[in-house]
Design goal:
The protein has three domains: 67 residues; 256 residues, Type I PLP-dependent aspartate aminotransferase-like (Major domain) (Aspartate Aminotransferase, domain 2); 100 residues, Aspartate Aminotransferase, domain 1 (Alpha-Beta Complex), CATH 3.90.1150.170. It is built from 13 helices and eleven strands. A hairpin with a 2-residue loop joins strand 10 and strand 11. The mean pLDDT is 97. The protein has 451 residues and is of the alpha/beta class. Helix 6 crosses helix 10. The chain binds pyridoxal-5'-phosphate (PLP). Pyridoxal-5'-phosphate (PLP) binds next to helix 6.
Length: 451
């Protein structure tokens, strides 16, 4: 074997050993593993090290200090694991090392990302002709969609955004939920929509926009809706809001980072009407269980996204559906290939079964916790369970004890001004036994801490 082959075989062996150890590894590393990261601390070596030694150090010091989010008992955020087909595709794509910007740089990436885009629209019940850009994150994809939205709204008002910019342009009003995700606000801030100028739509007790209190919309409004509020997993009432937005001539963007996948499940009616929006953002690396960084910017008017993201140059022209003309990146990884592989291996049925299973498991978990004396604060229609114990002190103490146990991990939140914790079910590896073990741990900790 050449040195390169020996090295890569060693990496594969170590990667498989890491995966084999996932079931017994702590979900969050202990203090010893974190302290051992100091072993990496040295100045940039003048002479290079042997690559085999670099890999050994990475595995021996690095692997124990990972969070086992690619496991069965990680319930923080909506992180998901990586499906075997997606992980395998990722390894092959790494060997290909394609610059997946356009057909000229990679015919296979161009072809598969195009196909993956069509499959995503089909799986989510979104308009088939939509453009799909595979970007690094929901944050980056929201930025791409919102820039297409602003450019289009201004064009309808007779303003040439590309050439005349924002100085003197008609003001675009932004209406968004008071529960909008922080990354939506980040995208808006980067785009130059000042935080003081945003118009907030009041939310109801479930975290959804209340249609009765929706601010006025017009043809210079960008309305941003949400599929999957981070605490409750609830959806804005699209079926009620969309006709109003359509009649006003507003552009509607939906942040569906994880919640959009409900469209592929038996609970699709939760998001009825969402298909009438103009653009959507979703992640692959959350509920679809693909590797990072994989997200999708989906735009009904394919030309609008292609025009906003165009990066053709004399030496690098491409079709308008080339990924470099649909995303922020020029050089980019063929990240849509892992999405293609995930969808090819699941099929529509397998995708529905996975999402349905997580929704069912969240319901089972909520029932067990309620029976054990916990307060479940949300309706648990999706994969989110928002929980509180008898007092704020108890809620915090239980969450800290669960994190310290290493058996599971989930994070804190503040809901209606008081501490709570969020349990998200989104890993393809999570079995019913894992859910039962989580419930048992939480009931045991509650008894111990109360005593
Ligand atoms: C995670 C999340 C985002 C941001 O997604 P990234 O891929 O991490 O940028 C946006 N909105 C919601 C509702 C999310 O849950």
């Amino acid at each position: 074997m050449t040195a390169e082959r020996t090295l890569l075989a060693d990496a594969d062996r170590r990667a498989l050993a890491y995966l084999d150890g996932s079931a017994s590894r702590r979900v969050f590393p202990d203090a010893t593993a974190i302290a051992a990261l100091q072993g990496f601390q040295q100045s940039l070596p003048a002479g290079g090290q042997n690559p085999a030694e670099v890999l050994r150090q990475l595995d021996e010091l690095g692997s124990p200090a990972t969070v086992t989010s690619n496991g069965a008992r990680y319930f923080g955020f909506v992180i998901g694991a990586t499906l075997p087909a997606a992980a395998a595709a990722e390894r092959l794509v790494l060997a290909w090392d394609q610059c997946a910007s356009s057909f000229d740089n990679s015919p296979v990436a161009d072809h598969l990302e195009n196909l993956a885009g069509r499959w995503v629209c089909q799986a989510l019940g979104l308009p088939a002709q939509s453009a799909v850009g595979f970007g690094t994150s929901a944050t980056a994809c929201t930025l791409a969609c919102l820039s297409a939205a602003r450019r289009s709204l201004l064009a309808r008002l007779g303003w040439d955004f590309d050439n005349d910019g924002l100085m003197g342009a008609p003001e675009i009003r932004v209406v968004l939920s008071e529960t909008a995700h922080i990354t939506v606000k980040k995208a808006l801030r980067i785009l130059g929509f000042g935080m003081n100028r945003l118009i907030y739509a009041p939310a109801d007790e479930h975290g959804r926009i209340d249609p009765a209190r929706l601010p006025a919309l017009d043809n210079r409004t960008l309305l941003i809706l949400q599929a999957g509020e981070v605490n409750t997993g609830e959806f804005d009432p699209f079926a009620e809001l969309m006709p109003t937005a359509r009649a006003a001539g507003a552009w509607v963007h939906v942040d569906g980072a994880f919640g959009l996948w409900a469209r592929a499940s038996s609970s699709a009616t939760l998001a009825a009407g969402i298909e009438q929006a103009d653009s959507w953002t979703t992640d692959g690396h959350k509920w679809l269980n693909t590797p990072y960084d994989s997200a999708m910017a989906i735009c009904r008017d394919a030309d609008a996204l292609a025009a906003a993201m165009n990066s053709d140059a004399a030496y690098a022209t491409a079709s308008k559906d080339a990924q470099k003309n649909l995303t922020l990146e020029f050089s980019r990884r063929a990240r849509g290939v892992a999405i293609w592989a995930a969808l090819a291996s699941l099929g529509q049925d397998g995708l529905r079964e996975m999402i349905d299973r997580h929704i069912r498991q969240a319901g089972t978990l909520a029932d067990a916790l309620r029976e054990g004396g916990y307060q479940v604060l949300n309706r648990v229609r999706l994969n989110q369970v928002l929980v509180r114990a008898d007092s704020d002190e108890q809620t915090v103490a239980i969450r800290e004890a669960a994190q310290a146990s290493g058996e599971v991990w989930f994070g804190p939140t503040i809901w209606q001004g008081r501490p709570a914790f969020r349990l998200s079910v989104s890993s393809w590896r999570t079995s019913d036994a894992d859910i039962q073990a989580l419930a048992e741990l939480l009931l045991r900790l509650k008894r111990q801490i109360a005593a």
